[in-house]
Design a protein that fits this description.
With about 250 residues, the chain is of the alpha+beta class. About 45% of the residues lie in helices and about 10% in strands. The radius of gyration is 23 Å and the shape is elongated. Bound molecules: flavin-adenine dinucleotide. Flavin-adenine dinucleotide binds next to α8.
Amino acid sequence: MKVEILEATPNPEETVCKAARNDYSDTYIGDKPFEKVMGEIEGNTIQDKKETLIHHLLEHGHFGPAEHISCTFAVKGVSRSLMAQLTRHRHATFDIQSMRYVSFDDEIPEVGEAVVEIPGLKEVNPTGRNVNWDEEYKQTTPEEKILSDREKVYQESIEESFNSYKELLDMGVPPEDARMVLPIGTKVNIVFTVNARMLMHIADMRAAADSQWEIREMTEEVLELAEDWCPTIFGYYNEEMKNRKNRLAP
Ligand SMILES: Cc1cc2nc3c(=O)[nH]c(=O)nc-3n(C[C@H](O)[C@H](O)[C@H](O)COP(=O)(O)OP(=O)(O)OC[C@H]3O[C@@H](n4cnc5c(N)ncnc54)[C@H](O)[C@@H]3O)c2cc1C
């Protein structure tokens, strides 16, 4: 997968600080230079003051000001399974590559290019929920054969799906109908926009240890990019808040 930032609020941490200070300012915040806005905050430099205020907000669960800043991410080559999980987050805005307008009719992609690679093919005991082996198969089959058996089943199933898809297109079936035979591992590109508060909430749930590996991997990349964009907020989140107990509310 590839994850990158398309656009993001400029001067994000200044905006968060101004919004937070507005609540306690007896004069209009829009007329004050940033140094004045931060005048009463502890710290020798403006960066120290930003850290004092932002850390205070995050420590005390005052997440509202983080809603004023947002970031647009482009994600390439993730599964439609990841897409289904990510789009459950209702405060993010999404654009999803369409299977009605984009069909694979000119060229059927090679297996492996069209669907995501899965750890269940590469590791005999991958981490994942609800593993349910056939005990006899597990006890009697060498590890190498287990991996090659899995690879074979996956490849054959993908090939069959894509060939059926192509056949249906050749028979005049519209892409929006033919896509029904494509696997959930089929790759998709996503653009999503999210504010910093909601990004922390998504990370609480999706960077967690019990989260599914692919969305966890994407969330880790998103968090790294978020830290480049907002070093104070996401630096603090990554150090102090990540891997908290799953929170059902932000
Ligand atoms: C490990 C894991 C396993 C999961 N398994 C399943 C599963 O098996 N089946 C399944 O269906 N889902 C599953 N989910 C999805 C999960 O239940 C949530 O739907 C999803 O994570 C969205 O998070 P959220 O509920 O916090 O809502 P978000 O849309 O991210 O909203 C953020 C917050 O805003 C508030 N909010 C948003 N909308 C409303 C509203 N309409 N009313 C009141 N408050 C609102 C809530 O406080 C909410 O926490 C799973 C998630 C994880 C992380």
